[in-house]
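W.,

You were right to be curious about this one. When I first looked at the sequence I had no strong expectations either way, so I just let the prediction run and decided to look at it fresh. Below is the sequence, 109 residues in total, followed by the output.
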Amino acid sequence: MLDKDLAKITTINQAMHSNGLFSKTEVASSIVDLNLIQAREKVVQQNIVLSRNSINYLLNKNPSELPNPVKFRHLSGASMVIGALPLCIIENRPDMQEATEELKAANET
């Protein structure tokens, strides 16, 4: 959405530059802003995929789409009970796996 707005602004700035109302630096600045937003958008999309895959890993599932019935802004933190998490999520946490391995190593000696 933001990139579409910036693209419109860039087009307007280019038209104003061709009419002599804007300097070339203002046009270049809007082009740079547009390119930065587009690059950040790609990074965000990759981070979403990585996060989704991490969640599936913790749930001991193959990478796939996650059901998303509720928007993030509508979630209530008060209704979440940490003790209600499935055991596989806790067992698959990297820090828990490391602690388990350390405990096994300590008990072997």
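Here's what jumped out at me. The chain has four helices and no strands. And, maybe more interesting for your project: The chain has a mean pLDDT of 83.

Coffee later to discuss?

I.
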